[in-house]
Amino acid sequence: MVKRSRIVAFLLILVLLGSTMGVTTNGILKNIKLGLDLQGGFEVLYEVQPAKKGQKIDSDVLASTAKALDKRINVLGVSEPNIQIEGTNRIRVQLAGVEDQNEAREILSTQANLTFRDANDKLKMDGTDLKEGGAKQTFDENGAPSVSLTLKSAEKFRKVTQEIVNMRPNNYLVIWMDFEEGKDSFKSEIAKENHKFLSAPTVNEVFNQNTVSIVGSFTAEEAQTLASLLNAGALPVKLKEVYSTSVGAQFGEQALNKTILAGIIGIALIYLFMLVYYRFPGFIATVTLSVYIFLVLLIFDWMNAVLTLPGIAALILGVGMAVDANILTYERIREELKVGKSVKSAYQAGSKNSFSSILDGNLTTVLAAAVLFFYGTSSIKGFATMLLVSIALSFLTAVFLSRLFLGLWVHSGFLNKRKSWFAVKESAIHDIAENFDTLDLPTRWDKLDFVKPRKVFFLISGALLALGIILLLVFRLNLSIDFSKGTRIEVLSNQPLTTQKVETVLNEHNIKTDDILISGDNKERASARLKDVLTKDEIAKLKAELKKEFGNDPNVSTVSPTVGKEIAKNGVIALLIASIGIVLYVTVRFEWAMAISAIFSLLHDAFFMVAFFSITRLEVDLTFIAAVLTIIGYSINDTIVTFDRMRENMHKKKRLKTNEDIAEVLNVSIRQTLNRSVNTVFTVLVTVIALIFFGSESILNFSIALFVGLIAGVYSSICIAGPLWYVFKTRELKKKGVIKTVKEKRKYSDQPQV
């Protein structure tokens, strides 16, 4: 008897979810904050230095500096800036969507220390004498823009002007911005055509008033900016740029549109695969995946987090990874159906048996993502945040929501005589009376042996790794400025570009480099690297000229040697911590032999990616570290599923008496999980391939790294981790004798022991 109420409940939930998502999605998308790589803007990392001798940079000074920077950002009218204190002497500022990046950079870094000095550079007044909010943009008697200052004390100003009048003929009141002791002087600056001081009026009479005007060759906009800066107050410290990146608005818009298109294509192909291969459960998976995507965006909105380009890539990858849990459950259910169980029993057993593998796989991926978040910077933190949110929500939707939906149909009785809806052929189903075990089911891979050719696998991997080491030593890695130092320039043109044209334009600005790369569908993008770190003034001038030349704001990034070394060091530390954490986890959950095999497999994947990038000369940047850690998390997920099945088969055997017993456990386990391994890697590969062909050029190398890592990962899980485990277990067998794989329960008796 079919319980229609459960089907009606499913349809009602579906309508409710669909309508909720339809009504709210647009608003959520509008609310999500986009990172500067998606809407343009700039990011700068400042090293905080003392403004005066003996000044200590402590947490209070950093906090007050961050507050002062926030006031200045308000001058720019930028909503929701991101200001973060890092370490003991650094502050990172991210301004997404700022229109005039050069103005913003100048306003942030200018110390805005206003001083009034005499012709001998002796300090008479400073910014502390200015009334709060006392600077205003005005016009002088000739209609020229000026800045009017209201002072706290008219009496103090009277005394100052009296002193200046008495200094005839050098009766100048010199108004300075950021005067540097021992470096600046009025006598040297007055001889220059473009002097550094703001103005130097002659004082011929004593003024008993609290107002003074700064008159110079200002535009109205410059005068307004100066007034706003003075009202914001002087910085308590000096700021030195040690890292910066700026993204033109057109770059951000193009990256956003391309990556969203890649996501739509990748996700659509996954949906199609699930529907065709798994049929009705595949339909349930597409529903829960849609809910998963909605929930990820909703949580991201609630967190007030910033969505970056790598973050979108993490969301797209998350869909491929979320399918993993569905595939694992559905494969288990199909096995239970094949041994003759009812749909209800198969659903319950399959859901139960797949849970531990899903949990273990997700936890190891969480470990890699957490390490990324802790050691990553800016957009990489965005990637890690999205990955963590994705993993948590994929677990909830794929494990609980998917089972709720499928459970409603299963318990309704509608599917009792429709086992074909689970993509199971009638000819493959055994009679329940045969008492057939799922571990004894034949597979399409039964002719494959993964033990006998193990030496060939090891030889192939060893040869490739040895070749990789040699080539790595010869060619080294093509490191981006992230890991060394220098400046990276990217231009976007309305016309196709050539290397010669870009080189000519850069040479006109005294920038010489032979490292120019043309990309884009119509060869409209070009990037160049140089070893020198450009100053903010050089960047401002270059950006203005390149915009004139190519019609769009360029991207300019700089990295100091200190920051480059730190990024490289943090990358190595992140890989080590992730590897050690995974070894410990697998050891606790499984056994030492599996843990050692797993770590060899993971290091194989990581080094294979490094060697590939060395050979192909692809640029290794920050996102490469993210790709390696992502692959480590995903590859161990795949390996754990195989190990989980190996543990089941060992428990079934109870004892491993010979090498043949160990080989049988390994071969059978890999064969039984190979369908799942192929399908899950395929679904993630689909999304990665979509990112490679349709996504933004900004994350092309990241996508290629993921593609190479996924291929290496599925190979190592099957051909390296498993056979290595076989080697370790045969040695254990030789050393200890028969290996017990099930702990025998102690037998208790109330009979007296003799």
What would you note in describing this structure?
- With 754 residues, this protein is an alpha+beta fold.
- Helix content is 59%, strand content 13%.
- The protein contains 20 helices and 20 strands.
- It has helices at 4-31, 36-39, 59-76, 101-109, 154-165, 186-189, 220-232, 249-278, 280-302, 309-338, 343-375, 379-412, 454-475, 499-508, 536-550, 561-589, 592-616, 622-653, 659-694, 700-736, and strands at residues 33-34, 41-50, 82-86, 90-96, 114-117, 123-126, 130-139, 145-151, 174-177, 211-215, 237-247, 306-307, 478-479, 486-492, 516-519, 525-530, 555-559, 619-620, 655-656, 739-740.
- The strands form six sheets. Strands 3-4-2-11-17-14-16-15 form an eight-stranded antiparallel beta sheet. A three-stranded antiparallel beta sheet has the order 6-5-9, with no helix packed on it. A three-stranded antiparallel beta sheet has the order 7-8-10, covered by helices on one side.
- A hairpin with a 5-residue loop joins strand 7 and strand 8 (145-151).
- Mean pLDDT is 84; it is low at 747-754.
Quick rundown:
With 754 residues, the chain is of the alpha+beta class.
